Amino acid sequence: MKTMKSTAQSALTTTGRFDIHKYRILLMIALLAVSSSACSIRQIAVNKIGDALASNGSTYEADDDIELVAGALPFSLKLVEGLLAESPKHKGLLLVASQGFASYTYLDVQPKADAAAASDFDAAKKLRVRMRRLYLRGHNYGMTALELAHPGISAQLIQDPRKAVALLKKQDVPLVYWTAAGLGLAISASRDDVEMLARLPEVEALIDRALELDPKWRNGALHEFGIVLAATRPGQLDVARIREHYKQALDSSMGRSASLHVTLAESLAVQQQDRVEFTRLLELALAIDPDIHKDNRLMNLAAQRRARWLLARTDDLILSPDIPQQGATR
């Protein structure tokens, strides 16, 4: 089975709803709520805070400092987990946790693992283990929320993924996306773990169902994830399906997503050993001005960081000579 090479870009096309400024405002309220001796007052306060954290209006996506956000997320996540300890069935908090662990791991842990892979095998292995654990942590929070909405779906998803996802509705799409992302990213981090690879049909079923329900969700994020899944399926590479997902995501994002080009470069150009197309796609990603598209600035910066890292490794990834082939963007 082909390895899932570009799940991270797909999963993080859209970021979690973490608002760093909102956390600062709510911190004192949160601490008061958790420490309150009156259970009913504490529960009401926690639920109100959870509603606020899960609401729209995040400034996280517009931040221009990856390290700042990556450094702030662990505190934010522990705050969310503290609130979930008081209100474990709060679906909004569960969604925030699912998004947050995927975002933090992609922004902070995965780049460290990538860097270590070239020089320190043991360190890279430890980081991949941590990646898998954190991604699964986010996946489990998402599954908890889906289980609350659709009792029994967790067991059904393992037994018959296609039948299980038929229960899902359009309002479930955000949870479905991040739940699938957590599992897909964990599979990617697990390399050749047969047990983890056997769970790939769960990811496929969740994303395919989300595409049925809301194909344009978050500016083509689901189609971008579809590129990775189509490239991962065993058997002959379905190039037509991959290119169609790319086209749909490109149309939905209106050319504002750097990660889309990085995803296609890793998922298709590397497999086809197309150096020309690989380079072109990464240059397209780098040509996007993050300051123009501020609503997706952070993830564009993260995708461009990966694009530069991939370009530096071109000779390791693409072994064929510079022979022009039919490219995905022509």
Give the SSE map.
Layout: H1 7-11, H2 20-35, H3 39-54, H4 66-86, H5 91-117, H6 121-149, H7 153-159, H8 161-165, H9 173-189, H10 194-197, H11 200-213, H12 221-232, H13 239-253, H14 258-272, H15 275-287, H16 297-312, H17 314-317
Helix pairs in contact: 2-3, 2-4, 3-4, 3-5, 4-5, 5-6, 5-9, 6-9, 9-11, 11-12, 12-13, 12-14, 13-14, 14-15, 15-16
Q: How much is the radius of gyration in Å? A: 20 Å
CATH fold assignment: Serine Threonine Protein Phosphatase 5, Tetratricopeptide repeat
How would you state the average pLDDT, rounded?
86
Overall tally of domains: 1
Q: What summary fits the major beta sheet?
A: none
Low-confidence stretches: 13-21
Name the CATH homologous superfamily.
TRAP transporter T-component
Strand content: under 5%
**CATH classification, class level:** Mainly Alpha
- The end-to-end distance, rounded to whole angstroms, is 29 Å
Give me the CATH architecture, please.
Answer: Alpha Horseshoe
Features:
Serine Threonine Protein Phosphatase 5, Tetratricopeptide repeat; mainly alpha; 330 residues
